Amino acid sequence: MQQSVRAQLAGDVVAVVSQSGPTVSFYDAATDRHLDTVEVIAEPHELCFDPTQRLLWCSTAYDSGYYHANTGRRSELTVIDADTRRVVEVVDLAPEHGPHGLALDPVRGRLYVSVEGSTDRPGGVVVIDTTTRRPIGRIDTDAPGPHWFVIDPTGTVGCASNKEAPFVSLVDLERGTLTAKVEVPGSEGLAFSPDGSKVFVAAPYAAFGPAGDAPGARPAPGVRVIDPRTATVTDTLATDHVMLPVHATATGKLLVGEVRMEPVPDSQLGRQAPGRLTVFATDDHARLGSVEVGLAPLTITSSPDGQLGYVACAASSTVDVVHLDTLERLARLEIPKRGEPGAHGMAYIPRNP
């Protein structure tokens, strides 16, 4: 069964960012064969595929490093032709900076990009016309650094996670306004359910070392379930470890990447242990199982049919390919890197019809 599932993916491609590459690598989704690598400006983070224009958008948040530990914020998005695998354009959002989260509305031709705040304005979301590839608006989220951003299936509601702010931001995409702040104790990855009735948010913000691990020092890790209509938290799905990425498949499975650390003598932070992909149902929130993955899972995506999950792990610079019915790891892609970290953003690219 698993071979037939992968055979159906012939012609599809998985694109993976190497943050320290700095590159975007392309792999055959059916065979895992490496197809090509595109050099991009430092330091790439996330990817988003536009099926209408057949373009990949790649965000570049920092000169090097990551949120709260970087050498300076950048302002560029790299646009790549998904079929020829060549850079089409570099779009500079300056004076906006720290672009990271990417969410696409293919019906309206809008790309939403989370950007960090500055001394004179809060963080927000830049709206880009995907035809002209130029900014056409901005939505404030009233937090210093909105990081991940997702939109509902109708393209009318957006939600931004805020690492250090004690809330997630709900925005009206049609009016371009912030509509609610939902209390969440510092948030990481997030995802809408396939029907748009729920937002799943990883919390609290991932902090490692003695302060983060001290009993009672921080809220217990768990996926907060938000009703966007009432702007309230309705449930929490408990996890054993802090989480970074959250992804919902088209078939109603919630994929959560748990980060595990193990103690090391004379080290405050410890070291990365194998991470875990944990799967819940988006309807009744049942825990469906888990499987071990690489070190520091940072991004998750899935095939359009919901059969396969892809987990990019930054510390091991790997992508685990997981059969989501059996939770068996089918393959592990080794993503080239030139330093730390490695594998980061991903995008699934269906074959060109």
Automatic annotation (TrEMBL):
SUPFAM superfamilies on file: C-terminal (heme d1) domain of cytochrome cd1-nitrite reductase
Protein origin, superkingdom: Bacteria
PANTHER family xref list: DIHYDRO-HEME D1 DEHYDROGENASE (PTHR47197:SF3), PROTEIN NIRF (PTHR47197)
Name by which UniProt lists this protein: YncE family protein
Organism: Streptomyces buecherae
